[in-house]
Amino acid sequence: MTETVVTIEDAARRLPDLIESVRAKGESALIVKSGLPLARIVPARLQNHRVDELLAFLHRWRVEHPDPDEQFAEVIEDSRKAIRPPHDPWA
Q: Is the model more confident about 83 or about 38?
């Protein structure tokens, strides 16, 4: 992935254009001050892509592992029983 390097001053002057460029090209922008990196603007992944990736993974998993894993189910159940609510210092 390529990356555009811009000074903080330039980024401040053209932030809307910089963000649109990051979104359109799918490439990050590194913001620097005096040659030192300060921040990076990266394209946001769309929520739908995550859902699609998760569904594809789950489908592959079911194909590769058609039988239920009882030991795994027991570990999950034990972990659920072990979870306690966080300590409330105000209670």
A: 38
